[in-house]
Structure formats: C-alpha cells, structure tokens
Design brief:
about 450 residues; D-Maltodextrin-Binding Protein, domain 2; 2 domains; seven-stranded mixed beta sheet; six-stranded mixed beta sheet; 15 strands
Length: about 450
C-alpha cells in the first residue's frame, strides 16, 4: 500500500487494514489523579524537569505502561515521568475536565479520532508533524494505518502506541460442547443459538451493558454487515438524516430482536465492563458467548484459570448477516491507542515526552511486552514477536483479521466528537433497554449529526 495521510473527514481511511505478513502490520500511582494534574517542575536527581502521564488501569495493560515509564526514568533520572492510572470511565471524565481547565498531564493517553479533533480545535495538543518528519525512524517503525486516527486536517497530533484491538466474538467451547452446538456462521445462526442456550439455562451472551460502549460494538458490526462501512461513513461525514438509512433501521431492529429474545444475560444493564464481570460470565460458563475487544484475551488468560491455557476459549470474526452488503472480513475497534503532548506543558516537559516517544514507546522491549499480553502491537514486523508465544494462535488470528479486512473501522464513540458520542451512548442504552424504538433512536441521533 502506498503511504497516505487520511483527510479529517475520511472515516474509512482512519483504519483500513494493512497486510501484516512481512510488514505487519503495528503503573506507577493508581487511583484518582492529583488535583490540577498538569506537569510540574522540579524533581529527581538534581532538580531537572518532571513530566506527567495519565493512562488506563486496565489489566494486564497497566503493567506494560508502567514498566515503560520505569525504564525511561531509569535511563533519565533527572527528567522523570510521573504516571497515574485510572479506570476507563473515570479517566474519560477526569481527562476531559483537566484539558478543559488547561491542567492536562504532559502526556495525554487516548484513542484519537473525534476526541483528538476537539483537542486540536481548542489548541490543547502539540502538532507533531514536523517532529515525525525529523524523526523518520520513529514513524517508520509504526504501521502506516495507525496514523489515521492521529491525523487531523493532514497534520499529526499524536504518537500511535500500544496495540491494534479489533472487536472479537468469543465463545466458551465447553458450553458449546455441552449443548451440542457449533459457532455461528450467520445472524440466523446467532438467533437459533439464543433459543438453544436459553433452553439449557445458559445466557447466550455476556454483556457489560452499564458501560454502554460494550453494547455499541453490536451496532457497529450490524451496521457494517447489513449496509457496509458506508452507512456510518455518512454519519461521520455529517450527511443529513444519515442514521435513518434503511440499513441502519434494519440493524437497530435486529438488535432489539436479539434483546427481546433474551439474547443477553439477565441484568446486563447493571453489569460494568470495568469490573470484568462480563468476561467472568464467559469463562465460568454462565454465558456462552461475548462480543468484546481483543484486549480482553489477556485479562481472561490472567483471571480465568485454565480457560485460555486449557484451550477452552474460542474466537472468531463477527458472522455475516443474510442478504447484507458488508464484507464479512470487515472489522471494527481500535486501530491503535494514541499519546498526545499537552500544549500547556513547558518546553522542558515537551522534550521529555518526545524523548519518551522516540526511545521507549513501541521500541523493541515495549513491543515485546505488548505481544506478551496477547495483543498485536502496531509495529511493522510484529509477527516475529509471536514465535514461541503461548498466545501465538490468538495473535495470528488478530493479525489475520487486520491482514484480510477490507475495512478496520474506528470505534464510533472515538470517531465522533465527544458531544455526539455522549448522545450516542445514552441512546444505545435506551435502545437496549427497549425504551425507544429504532426510529426514535435514528431521530435522536440525526439531531446531533455534525455536532
């Protein structure tokens, strides 16, 4: 693929799958962040500058993030980075408030896309375009596709980091064997399995519905499989009444059909993803399947006893919908994670952050650690990191998804501006609770297109 810089309004270009084969395709303190969490001066070993870095406390990812900081600080004792880890929803609230108050940490962890665009429009993050030009070796080690969600109006405002995270349909092989079932190959199969598992008093799907973004994954795939990625592209482009596309209404209706058929664990609206309770339902056999991010493989491996190591976890891409236009190779999720530098940081703190990016983030040791969590880092040649890994089969599966996908679309709540994303998540919760109809969902979302 020829290198290219996606335009700001090309959602599809944010994350088109790149062949992985020969060129794959790339905590310190915990709890609440310090008040006014901007970077501070002063510090270790003789009073050099000190930078700050906020990120998620998800496991086992937090350890990789923390150890990267520790390695950097050991090599740079006079210019250290102070890390702070938080849970997903708490982080989103805290970082938004801090950036709005001009008190962001030096290094801002995020997902790129629409949220990054709002930071750029408010002048809150550094333009890194010229820095990447001057540090071509840093850019060259990363997947070209990972820069899409870091790019606004042709300029780069974030360092791609960590891993590609497609959304995966997981299933418990033992439970399937128990009821004599096979993994679904179509939407019709999914609906048939719902009845089969309910008859066996097993929840068909685990879901942390209180978190809402986990429910969103279902719509992302249904929109794609029924109408192709162009359906959400129209929303992203701000086309009037794009949510009323017949394919969108069909997807919303099918989702509610699944809810009405008791497709999800009872009480799903009170289960949070941050607690990993949805994953526990799968590996304990209380639920047969789960649609969730690739990152959950690592936590299920850590927390699920012999569920993963014993070969009891199955995984697959989301199946096609009968009569749908979407390519069944398509996937959705996070093409990467992204590190920006606060424009409010001091020149010294900005230099610390840039040195951290150049010397540590997705360097050989960092990339190896990310592969060790059961994920595919967004670096070229990452397939060489899988050799001998106990997770090699899963890592190759993820690599294959990215290699074969016609479209690897960014998660909606990250692709959209924050205001529209908030309305989206609120309406998704209502859709799953059956308190609004598909048509009402479309009307509500059409009202915030382009906001």
């Amino acid at each position: 693929m020829e290198p290219r810089t996606p335009s700001r309004r090309n959602f599809l270009a944010l994350s088109v799958g790149v062949p992985l084969g020969a060129a794959l395709a790339a905590c310190g303190t915990s709890g609440p962040a310090p008040a006014g969490g901007g970077a501070t001066s002063g510090g270790a070993g003789g009073g050099g500058a000190k930078a700050t870095y906020w990120f998620l406390s998800t496991q086992p990812q937090e350890g990789v993030r923390t150890r990267a900081v520790e390695r950097f600080n050991k090599a740079n004792p006079n210019t250290p980075i102070t890390p702070t880890a938080m849970q997903n929803d708490a982080y989103k609230t805290k970082i938004k408030s801090a950036i709005g108050a001009g008190q962001a940490p030096t290094i801002i962890w995020g997902w790129g896309g629409g949220t990054l665009r709002t930071y750029v429009q408010a002048g809150q993050v550094e333009d890194l375009t010229s820095w990447f030009e001057q540090n071509a070796a840093v850019k060259d080690r990363l997947l070209e596709s990972s820069f899409g969600a870091a790019t606004i109006d042709g300029k780069i405002y974030a360092m791609p980091a960590e891993t590609m995270q497609p959304i995966v349909l997981y299933y418990n092989k033992k439970v399937f064997e128990q009821v004599g079932a096979t993994p679904p190959q179509s939407w019709g199969d999914i609906m048939a399995l719902v009845k089969k598992f309910n008859d066996a008093d097993i929840a068909p799907f685990a879901l942390g519905g209180q978190s809402r973004w986990t429910s969103m994954m279902w719509l992302e795939f249904l929109f794609d499989r029924i109408g192709g990625p162009e359906v959400f592209q129209a929303v992203f482009d701000g086309q009037k009444d794009a949510w009323s596309n017949p394919a969108a209404i069909d997807a919303l209706t099918k989702l509610q059909d699944l809810v009405k058929a008791d497709g999800f664990i009872k009480g799903f609206s009170s289960i949070t993803a941050d607690s990993n309770a949805d994953q526990a339902l799968l590996y304990t056999g209380k639920a047969a399947m789960m649609l969730h991010g690739g990152w959950t493989y690592g936590s299920m491996s850590t927390d699920g006893g012999d569920f993963v190591s014993g070969g009891h976890l199955g995984y697959m891409n989301f199946p096609p919908v009968e009569g749908g236009k979407g390519d069944p190779s398509n996937t959705v999720g996070n093409p990467g994670q992204y590190l920006s530098i606060s424009s409010k940081a001091t020149p010294e703190q900005k230099e610390i952050a840039k040195k951290f990016f150049a010397t540590t983030i997705l360097g050989p040791e960092d990339a190896k650690e990310w592969a060790g969590t059961g994920a595919v880092p967004v670096v070229k040649g990452a397939d060489s990191l899988f050799a001998g890994s106990k997770d090699a089969d899963f890592l190759q599966f993820v690599s294959g998804i990215a290699n074969n996908a016609k479209s690897f679309a960014q998660s909606w709540d990250q692709a959209l501006p924050p205001a529209a994303a908030t309305v989206l998540l609120d309406n998704i919760a209502k859709l799953f609770q059956l308190s609004i109809t598909p048509q009402q969902f479309a009307t509500n979302m059409n009202a915030v297109i382009g906001s």
